[in-house]
Amino acid sequence: MSPKLVPIPSKNMIPERDIDKPPVLECINLGITFGGLKAVEDLNLAIGKTEIVGLIGPNGAGKTTVFNLLTKVYQPTSGAILLNGQDTHNMDTIHINRAGIARTFQNIRLFSNLTVEENVKIGMDSQMHYNMFSGLFRLPGYWKEEKATHQKALELLSIFNMADLANARAGSLPYGAQRRLEIVRALATNPCLLLLDEPAAGMNPSETAELMENIRKIRDTFQIAILLIEHDMNLVMNICEGICVLNFGKVIAKGTPEEIQANPAVIEAYLGKKREA
After folding, report:
1. What single-letter DSSP state applies at residue 18?
2. Where are the domains of the chain?
3. Is the model more confident about 8 or about 82?
4. Which residues pair with 31 in a beta bridge?
5. What does the alpha-carbon distance between residue 62 and residue 35 come to, in Å, rounded to a whole number?
6. What's the rounded mean pLDDT across residues 15-36?
7. N or C end of the chain: which has fewer CB within 10 A?
8. For residue range 61-105, what is the model confidence (pLDDT) as tens digits?
9. What is d(CA 55, CA 197) in angstroms, rounded to the nearest whole number?
């Protein structure tokens, strides 16, 4: 049974357990137009501090465009994005990441020739405090930071049982392991909201089941929110607490998995309108 979703002042819904805290993310009438095409229109969505939310819809519905808006790959042409109550209109991709949004991609984007640990450490760049002088001459401050980042990288990798692969070349990993590494690198940026773009793509059933457990573990361990795009409906319905359904750039339904499964507009969007006899 999904947790009870309750309204907040903006008329969006978040889990009851998060009601005493402001939403980690709130989109208000969010939209973007490319030429005359409205790729996303009037998106209203709130995500609780520790909520796992699914963003689903048919191919071309605008899901990845929403991720690109949230991470400022695209700048909205209408509406607002609030991150922990702060308007992000003047932020770029770097600032939005440092403010707390991290993401993975449909197509894996790792530094293939670097080691697994080095890929994770890249995600910690903004958290390292030694200066160029300290790094150049290998002063004590440099070694202190290096030791701390090494330890944190191994702790993050251990979430996916990958600590023993720390010295392996990222490009040599199997596909599923590369997917997991990309999630670990995103976590290394210390986000409050993690965006997962089709995390189960290319995974077999056992890997997908393990992924579901790891997503819950990430939420519970780090007490962060997770927004995921996914076509595997078994994963979505079993792990997401709230679901937002897009079709042609517009929200056609929001609710719990049970509500979404029974929604006629969602069924029509995926299966087409039933012809009358």
Report:
1. G
2. 1-100+191-277, 110-190
3. 82
4. 78
5. 15
6. 92
7. C
8. 999 999 999 999 999 999 999 999 999 998 999 999 999 999 999
9. 9
Helix 175-187, helix 205-222: angle, nearest 10: 10
Q: Where residue 134 falls among pLDDT bands split at 50, 70, 90?
A: low
Q: Which CATH number fits domain 1-100+191-277: 2.30.29.170, 3.10.50.40, 3.40.50.300, 3.40.630.30?
A: 3.40.50.300
pTM > 0.90: no
Angle between helices 175-187 and 140-159 (to 10 degrees): 130
Would you state the structure tokens that stand for residue 169, as one six-digit string? Answer: 């070349």
- For residue 14, the model assigns a pLDDT of 83
**Which runs of E-coded beta strand occur in the chain?**
5-7, 13-15, 25-34, 37-47, 52-56, 78-83, 86-87, 101-103, 193-197, 225-229, 242-247, 250-255
- Report the pLDDT averaged over residues 181-203: 94
Chain length of the chain: 277
